[in-house]
Amino acid sequence: MRSKRTTPIGLDIRDSEVHAVQFEVADGRPALRAAAVWAVPPASEADERAPALLAALRSLSLDRRFVGRKVVSALPANQVDVRPLRLRPGVTPEDGAAFQENLILEARSSLLYSPEEAYIDYVPLGTTIEDGQQKYAVLLIAARREHVNRHLAVLRAAHLDCVHIEPGAPAALRMLRDGDGTVAFLDVDADTTSISVGKQGGVLFSRTVSTGTRGMIRSLAQALRISEKEALRTLRTYGTDPEGSTAYDLAMAAETGLLPRESLRALLFSFVGQALGRIAEEIRRSLDYFSRQRRGGSIDKAFLVGVEMPAGMAAHLEKEIGTKVIAGPALAQSLQIDPSVGLGGPTPSRDPMPNLPSLAAMGLALREEV
Q: In the chain, N or C: fewer CB atoms in 10 Å?
């Protein structure tokens, strides 16, 4: 008889959405049981966001597609500081109190707030050579206590039992398979973009920058005098093309009421190209920094996730960073995930439903399986 159990719910609270995922595990093999996305106002609209977030989380606790109320959650990316640190020569985790003391010392010089005001953790990266000296490298993970406590209070108010909190980047890495090599996760959200590098067994680098797709959406909405919802739908439907031509037959366009698709894509790029370029530049700079720190370490491929992205964004980033970028259905196939499973029934998310649930939410749900 096959043993079967359900995982805790992986909960990824993003800039403007809440992603929830749960797996069913039979004989050690997980299958996606349920997934849902709820739209919430951006963090800049705090008065609207708090009640909307609570309503979304309460909807999750009442959603019968999910079993139980235990969740493994991630803080929003802009509330977590993740950065590489090198400790003083000769100090390693085996040194106990000396290691913790040096970790706090380095954190104090790196963070914009006192370590005493934060929850501090780290991911070991191993030894490295700097200025001829051997130093132990870690990936510092820090979050202000007030943010963590507020996060837990909201989950309790929604009648959810949070059994663990961890950053989204290490969680997403659980979705990697043997043979994926060194992979970059490009998680493009509304107001932030998280760039993480890792391979099976751990994260090697992670950085979050304050730029996302909202800039593109607002630029197009203002240029065409349409709503941001219509701007997003237009970008998803047609995408952009920096190499296309905006030249077209005005008489034919007037007669048919249609603009050639190639010309339309180029026209859309003329409105959003600057904002898209900022995202690409931050990704390129981050990956270049990783490569320098790892003495020329290469990245085999990149996984692009996010639900407010224009069509064709993967191809555009691929040209910019010079690395194969996989997104959408191709990413689902690469990870051997059927994105349609568990997404049936009424969906409280914005239209359309994303192609793939948050990789962080999936990795959070699988925390106890790895």
A: N
CB 6 within 8 A of CB 342: no
Helical ranges in 225-260 per DSSP H: 228-238, 250-256
Query: For the chain, what are the domain ranges?
Result: 81-144, 215-271
Residue type, 262: E
Q: How large is the angle between the packed helices 228-238 and 214-224, nearest 10 degrees?
A: 110
pTM for the whole structure: 0.78
Q: Is 369 helix (H, G, I), strand (E, B) or coil?
A: helix
Token readout for 184 is 């970059």
Q: Is 37 helix (H, G, I), strand (E, B) or coil?
A: strand
Q: Which run of H or E residues covers position 36?
A: strand 29-39
pLDDT in tens, 203-231: 888 888 889 998 999 999 998 888 888 88
Peptide bond just before 352 cis, omega within 30 deg: yes
Which CATH architecture fits 81-144? 2-Layer Sandwich (3.30)
pLDDT 10s digits, 28-48: 788 888 888 888 877 666 677
Phi and psi at 159, nearest 5°, equal 65, 35
